[in-house]
Write the structure tokens for this entry.
Amino acid sequence: MIGDIDMQKKEYEKYLNLALSTGADFAELYYEESKNRIFRLNDSKLDSIDTSDEKGLGIRIVSAGESYYTSTNILTEKNISTIIKRLLKNIPKNTSKKVKLKSKKNYKNQVLIPHDKYPTNKKKELLYLIDKTARNYSELVVQVSAGIVETDKSFTIANSNGKYVSSSSTLTRIITTVYTEKKDIKEHEFVDYGKGMGYEILDEIDLKALIEKTTNTAVEKLDAVDFKGGELPVVIAPGFGAVIFHEACGHGLEATSVAPHLSVFSDDLGKKVATSKVTLIDDGTIKNSWGSFVIDDEGNNSEKNVLIEKGILKKYLVDSFNSEQMGQVPNGCGRRQNYRYATTSRMSNTYLEPGNDKIEDMIKSIDLGVYCNFAVDTARLIEHGQIKHLVKGITLIGNSKDILNNVEMISDDLVISAGYCGSKSGMIPVTIGQPTIKVSKILVGGKE
Amino acid sequence: MNYKTFFKKAKEKGLTNIQVTEKQTIDSSVEIINSKMESFDDYNNIDYHIKAEYNGKTVKTSCNYLDTNILNLLILKAKKTDSYYEDEYLSNRKSIPKNKPLNFDISKEIMLLKGLDELKKEYDQVQKLTTYFSETYTNTRIINSNGVDISTDSHLCSFVVEAIAENNGEFTSYDRKVLETDKSKIDFISVTKDVLEKVMIQSNKIKLTTKKYTVLLDSYVAGKIISNITNMLSATSIRNKVSCLEKSLNKKVFSEKLTIIEDPNNKNYPGYRLFDDEGTATVKKFIIKEGVVNTILYDIKEAKLKSVEPTGNSYQGIGTKNMYVEPGKKSNLELIKSIKDGIYIIDYMGSMGSAISSVTGAISIQVFGFKVKDGVIVSGINPAIMTTTIFELLTNISEISSELKFTNTNSASPALLIDDISIAS
């Protein structure tokens, strides 16, 4: 049931036919139901359970290469027909066609312990454990914020090519921020662990060790000193260091920016864009990964896409709408936050393939640089081939092509981290991954 | 399910004082790239934020439909959470009827935006011109089981232009956003021309020396940075000891030139609201007065915990509407003319949400903009990083521009001229 209408195959066909009634080339309906729960601990108490329950419908119509999208959660037959007709007012008239949907296919990711089967009291105990672990680790801890994020989502896609599929997915993420204070200096450190699974996630992590490591970092950061920035060699530790590849390179390989020629990589297919050390992969098929999915939000199977192979640009991330303009096949990357957004090409699990360089060789090779081994803004100074004290205010920037062409060494210690990516089709779960790398030259922020 | 049935079923389940904040948003938007329509989006949604009492304990939830499962969820939350507080619920309030939603049509603006592409023909190096227009109607209605039914609505029009220029194989982009409550106030042509001229200057870039500079933060940049004050002065952040302004009430922490006001009742500003999301009436107030922290920002829960009055800052978390830095007397042009050797910062980018920390006050951001020499904008700048703190930045203010522009509903600032800020390049 959607609102006061029963949304079965014939209703999907009826609305698709209405969407095509003035001669559009393509139409798609996307119906979604989702539940989000965040169990939040603050001040050593389960402070709140944030909950959000949504249902909604998104409708896309493509005509003469232009995309028209509308969305609503007012799910009455009258309103759905009205919003489709409102879109049609802007679309040039042509010959209409009829849609016949195929038999429905259902997909889901496997979940061993669903969110609603794991007792709330156990969730509370987990949060108390995080709080206790951090506070017991150091007296400098002044606050611990922790949360368990649960997302359950299901959607149905019906389009004018006859595609008729549904999918359901479950995501679980544990997040913690530890706050420290010493002589009026405040610091904090964030850590998270997320997977495309239920509470079986707890079998995968050593939560105590993870929280102790995070707390240690929050304590150490209190002694960081200012550092004068500039262009320097940098060693970036695994995991979240990879955000620089996600931002500087990954977004430039999405059809969203390639198709309208807004990317520096728009004309580079088959060209050398990085040092031969660099192989960059986006893989939505990794089992139970936070950024994975069985089918994307256009109903296409997820894929492993080698974007850059040994420095050569091999492929872009292409969604169905942009595939027409680019003359390339879609490769399972059409994603959206929810029904309020039209899909576009997005990353999933993006990582730099491991190499075989040694970390100690990277450090030894640097006379003055920084070793970024924290999640954000703090790093260790490297002087004369040795790791020294902590420095703060660190931000790394550079343009995509410079960074890719300055990757000098890559080790074999790949770590993948979960997070969210915000772009044209909203916030979506992604992972980023990288082994330790040495970049020969990058701009490092700092303060005199 | 209608409200009458929803409240009745709530009562049957033992939920009292049930209150719904209903938000209806209707939006139409279009994006044009080089005269081709990239996307047209319509949006018509209603969201609900519900709070209710169960055995004297207040609980909340968000959803976009109303049914008995939502009521069961509220009860579960009341039973399982440790924190306990009793909220205050609206009663005996004169009804403010909900206006009929606006039904707008942006087909004229689509044609207008497509025509703007002609302007780029005068600029050979400009490869792309992207324009975006949206018209949004938002209505916030609070309705509860005590018979209260009040509404406040707003209408916003947004115009964004981005130009991308190529110079020796390197791309540079420059964009501007204009936000108005009346679309007739938007001068589409002059905004687009300004963007095209600025991107040409910016595309000719020079490398800076790493040192301290006088910086002019553009209105857009200053507004974005000032928005962090909301979180720093949120009663929740302060209670949790996670704000760098935790012990700053009634203390002078910034330049005496800095006064920050919140004025949600001003209809000419885009964040116009008669009441916040809990129904507390909004009032004009000083947040920072001549560098001194004048108030902490409270919702009902935090106010009750501290036995003070709520300040009308509940917007699904503590927030502000129409918060702005009080303008000075000199124009932007006069401020630029006063700079001997400095940087005019027109945009910034942070990494992973840590660019401006409300916990430590640290700021480390990639900045984009122009080099200013002897009062004249001379070129763009190569990638650069500004590293400072909120305290240093807002203490070193030497002048505040007279030109206040809002680009969002929450906060705004005129351009700020600031001395001695570290820039690495």
About this structure: Chain A touches chain B through 74 residues (CB under 8 Å).
